Amino acid sequence: MYFKIKAYLRFLFKSTNQHGVHSPFVYNLITRCFYNTEKRKAYLSIKSAYKKANKKISVSYRTAKLLNRIVPYFDLKNVLILTDLDFISEILSVENLISTDHIIQSKKDYDMIYLDINQLQYQLNIELLLSKMHNDSVIILNSIYKSEANIILWETIKKHSKIIVTIDTFHLGFVFIRNEQAKEHFIIRA
Q1: How many of the other CB atoms lie within 10 Å of CB of 189?
Q2: HSE of 85 in the Cβ direction (CA atoms, 13 Å)?
Q3: CB-neighbour burial class of residue 13 (10 A; exposed 0-12, middle 13-18, buried 19+)
Q4: What is the three-class DSSP state of 97?
């Protein structure tokens, strides 16, 4: 518990909002998606899914709403979800038309890949995931501050030569390979 509090305080000290961002791509993502306060019908379904869930869910209601907003913002169609939680598939697909896979398909590029970061340590490698992406794809990593090992892995991912833009929101890490942009890392309060 102490580790997470210390990590969160460090995050707050380093983080910014949209006013500290000079990338138009990231600025628009923050202002039009992350900070979007528009009420969506999907939120009622997400809230009822939380009530139905019998076990503890690894993402907060606020994070679930953000994940649901990401799909229409980027107009995502093909999503790979590499986590054992059916809840993530459910919240992404509420009022969004997406095709989801739970196993990496051999001849498919994904618009979005969602997974817990600790799965990269044990089951997958970042090269495999990057090979399944196109220039406008996003990888969303959950639990980047859950442990010291996860933080070290997040730092390694940020330094990867193919990864151009990363956004750290404490609860989620966003990874982009946008070749038209300069390499930057953003720490955003979302």
Answers
A1: 15
A2: 19
A3: exposed
A4: coil
Give the integer Cα–Cα distance in Å for 39 and 188. Answer: 22
pLDDT tens readout for residues 140-184: 999 898 888 889 999 999 999 999 999 999 999 999 999 999 899
CATH number, domain of 17, equals 3.40.50
Token pair listed for 135: 């220039």
Q: Which residues lie across from 139 on neighbouring strands? A: 113, 175
> How far is Cα 136 from Cα 188, in angstroms, rounded to an integer?
20
Q: How much is the pTM?
A: 0.91
- Give residue 106's domain range: 2-187
Token pair of 128, please? 């495999």
- Any alpha helices (H) in 81-177, and if so which ranges? 86-93, 118-122, 126-131, 148-159
| DSSP characters over 14-60 | H-B-GGG---HHHHHHIIIIIT-----THHHHHHHHHHH--S--SS-
Please state the domain count of the chain: 1
Q: Single out the residue of 84, 73, 78 nearest to residue 142, CA to CA.
A: 84
d(Cα 94, Cα 68) in Å, to the nearest integer? 7
Gyration radius from the chain CA atoms: 16
b/e 71-91 (16+ beta carbons within 10 angstroms → b): beeeebebbbbbbebebbbbb
